[in-house]
Amino acid sequence: MAEQSVKAAPATAARAGGLSKHYALIILTLAYTSSHVDRGIVNILMPSIKAAFDVSDTMLGLMGGLVFALFYATLGVPIAMWADRGNRRNIVALAVTIWSGMTAACGMAGSFSHLLAARIGVGIGEAGSSPPSHSMIADLYPEAQRSTAMSFYSVGVYAGAMIGLILGGYVVQHYGWRETFFVVGLPGLIIAALVRFTIQEPVRGQVDGLTHVVEERQKGSLFAQTKRYAGNLWQVFVHLWHTRSARHIIIGLTLVSFVGYGGLIFGPSFFRRSLGLGEQQIGLIFGLTAGLVGGIGALIGGFLADRLSRKDMRWNAWVIAVAKIVGMPLFIVFYSSSNLDIMVPVYVVSMLLGAFYLGPSFAMIQSLTPLHMRSLASAVMLFVLNFIALGFGPLTVGFLSDQLEPYFGVESLRWSLLITSFLGVWAAVHYYWAGQTYEQDVAKLKKAHAAA
User: Which of 257, 316, 329, 372 is most buried by its number of CB atoms within 10 A?
Assistant: First the structure.
């Protein structure tokens, strides 16, 4: 009996550990969902904000993109340095508190400049979410399960979009755009408490058997550690650039996101102008498709990447390349039609394929990065992605729409979105190239870890 008890104890502990890591992943995903509700709520509110403050599409693109991204992207790097040596759970909890409060503050804006200032605050808060969350997930799940775990986390993008569009569409149509900011912002404070008080900080490097590397890196005074991590910033840039697969993943990810952010932010306005739909109807159609279908697509993408890469690691990246090539004709059909009976089914399939990229991309970057740089590598990746894609994707769509308006009138936004969607083909080429060297680059890093 004693021997049976001894054997049962590790199994029980393993099950408890599995439940604990899955719970932590769920809560982190909930926080990520909240960030995308608060980030994307302006998308459904743009027609009301445009009417309230009498601004152009370019200014709307500036609010939805560059103003937010400038602070979100740049502050992610120093916060990631903090996360690589501090308590990542507490950083995420603080971040959720800040962005939730600032989203509610958007509802009190007395002018468009006040709204821009509040959006900056949302960006500052959200800068502290993804890098430490990516690092925590990488320390909760081994490499063979990492794409699936990251894909589950990335469902927050689509769940957040769905909640923001459906809930936002209902509230803005029945109560007003200011009240909508309050409704979506304040519940985030509950999520912040769940992060802070119900999940634990994972042990760095444990699932990779590299705890000793972390312990060595964390020796020394606070000043010495901070100086070392600051010095790592340049090393991370150099490492990601000179690692061929990582370089192509980041370029591909940025191009895909450039198209995605432009479509997500101006999609509701396109449905409103070109199809004449109301906010509540737009929220249901656009929200369910972008949110529910996108979330399913993200999970399928992660599952396929993990499954196919067991025999050939190149499929981690090639799954995304194939999805982008197949999806391009669907974008052409979607933006060329005004018949909802055609547009909705086409949009469902294109969104399903379009969501494949996030989880595998995040997972590959974590697997290609030295253990002590994972939060910082995630921040560098997100800096490039968000500064270029989120910063200039919506701004480019809005600017093109304004320039094309004299020629196409109300349909200028349709043509602007169609033109930028062709960047997806360029992204597919980079993901194909990334797959070519991914296995060699992972093996090289493992060899370096073993030497350490």
Answer: 316
